[in-house]
Amino acid sequence: MRTIRIGSGAGYSGDRIEPAIELAESGNLDYLVFECLAERTIALAQQDRLKDPQGGFDPLLADRMKAVLSICRKNGVKIITNMGAANPVAAAQATRDIARALGLPGLKVAAVTGDDVLEQARASDVALDEGGSVKALGNRVISANAYTGAAPIAEALAGGADVVITGRAADPALFLGPLVHEFGWAMDDWDLLGKGTMVGHLLECAGQITGGYFADPGVKDVQGLARLGFPIGEVREDGGLVVTKVAGSGGQITRATVIEQLLYEIHDPTRYYQPDVVADFSQVRVEEVGPDRIHVTGGSGTPKTGLLKTSVGYLDSYIGEGEISYAGANAVARGRLALEIVRERLTLTGVKMTESRFDLIGVNALHGDALAEGRDPYEVRIRVAGRTDSLAEAVKIGNEVETLYTNGPAGGGGAWKSAREIVGVASALLPETVVTSSVTFMEA
Amino acid sequence: MKLREIAHSRSGDKGDTSNISVIAFDVGDFGFLAEHVTADHVAQHFGDTITGTVTRYELPALGALNFVLTGALGGGVVRSLALDTHGKSFSSALLEFELPAKGASSGSP
Questions:
Q1: Candidates 3.30.70.600, 1.20.1250.20, 3.40.630.30, 2.60.40.10; CATH matching A315-423
Q2: Which of A156, A210, A264, A380 has the largest count of CB atoms under 10 Å?
Q3: Average pLDDT value for residue range A405-428
């Protein structure tokens, strides 16, 4: 039975570069996938594109392509990525230009478009999961991108693409696309589409299945995290999967790392909603078949809903923040006094906040006071954060923390402040008929 | 006994919802976990940190529970005022959950 080897070269936009080089060189891969889009990324990218019509794609695209294009060409590895973000065509052009500069004539790059549904979302005035509607957000809306599926990626590969660049494709679809193309899986074979979705789900966060986001010294030890290897999925034509990595790379793949990742960002395990299928992970079995080789079976699926999750980006608010640290005896008491001073100052000076937080980092910033159980640390850092309607108001929050230097409790050090605009993301469900995908080819 | 002595955990985010898996080191402990770590327990453990509901899903073959907490991320990861906007550290918080000593119930040998 045929097997395809897919490597996962990035788990998020800013991820390490060298593990992908290692995969391209030594992974004996057929495909190398870079998953680089988070919920908000595409809305921010849309703002970049408004400023620069040739911008709006992933800022690390050039670095990643320069690192792997020549190796992938030499080893016959095709690349699939959502680094196109808000502008897949410009990203494909940039990749083509890099291929030319590297001396890779004939390299074929495909851009998949159609996920930008801003006009359709405005026209349909769709309701948002968080309440309200696109219409109610009015001109604060800056983007609407539907999560698209595997079919246009498979189409690009069938057209001979060496590199496929998408926008807001669903993360697992980046992996399902090549499986559909290679094995000719039917787009209504829900069982196989569910299995392929499980492959994508397990691999898409790269190092999170090879021992990253897992280590806990003395409890769950992992060796070699500074040179963590990224995963390879060996996928059989029947959807069977072995997860492995390049021999000698850092990290580990065990039953435990695989199960943690299987449930990562999953709600009901019988209903993992994707554009092409509703995947079911509830009957998955995980078995070690060798060192760093885990056999995963039992994924399945049921028919797709015909609705696509759509991320709507909008100008939300501003956040101002400030921090300063205290140490030694009574550090927590001085930190609490500092928080009370800032709270009173923000009231006295009339800073308009719609929401605020006053945290003691080291005590209660992550989970509140109850879980801290009164354990006092040697050092503590206060943090004040507030939401405002303008940048000018947000700036005042950090300033009131900074002035503790000369006006606050004894020994405050290391003040830091920031104020920034917040692009919010709301979710909606749109009928899949609003998306018309198309594939644009170009050659180096 | 703390939950961390018999299980490991990972948390993930989608919008304002967090999910926290609880996975037994020994799959034989699943029954004990299922008996002693309920959705209500998790809701009480997190207290005011979450404003929504807790739902539990069971994966006995993997020795795992999956908890889904709504209203958990300060209005959503992209606009939250929290230090840990993703709730990545929630797994560590849940592992501090106090369990009865094993053998004190019928759930485990």
A1: 3.30.70.600
A2: A210
A3: 96
**Is the Cβ pair B76, A424 closer than 8 Å?**
yes
The per-residue pLDDT for range A137-196, each reduced to its tens digit, is 999 999 999 999 999 999 999 999 999 999 999 999 999 999 999 999 999 999 999 999
Q: What is the ipTM of this complex?
A: 0.94
Domain locations along chain A: 3-114+145-305+430-443, 315-423
Best mutation target among A37, A366, A429 (most B Cβ atoms within 10 Å) is A366
The answer to whether residue B13 is domain-embedded is yes
Is the CB of B89 less than 8 angstroms away from the CB of A266? no
Sequence-distant (≥ 6) Cβ neighbours of residue A354 within 8 angstroms: A317, A387, A388, A389
Give the one of A356, A383, A424 whose C-beta lies nearest to B78's C-beta. A424
User: Are the Cβ atoms of B10 and A286 closer than 8 angstroms?
Assistant: no
In a domain, B78, yes or no: yes
Domain that holds residue B7: 3-95
Q: For residue A74, what are the contacts with CB-CB under 8 A and spacing of at least 6?
A: none
Q: Which residues contact A325 (CB under 8 A, 6 or more apart)?
A: A379, A380, A381, A382, A412, A413, A414
**Cα gap A123→A321, rounded to integer Å:** 37
Tally of domains in chain B: 1
Task: Read off the pLDDT of residues A197-247 as tens digits, 9 standing for 90 and up.
Answer: 999 999 999 999 999 999 999 999 999 999 999 999 999 999 999 999 999
Contact B25/A256, CB-based, under 8 Å? yes
Residue B109 has pLDDT above 50, yes or no: no
The strand pairing partners of A293, in sequence order, are A290
- By the CB < 8 Å criterion, does B18 face chain A? no
> Nearest CB to B78: which of A39, A216, A286?
A39
SS3 category, A106: coil
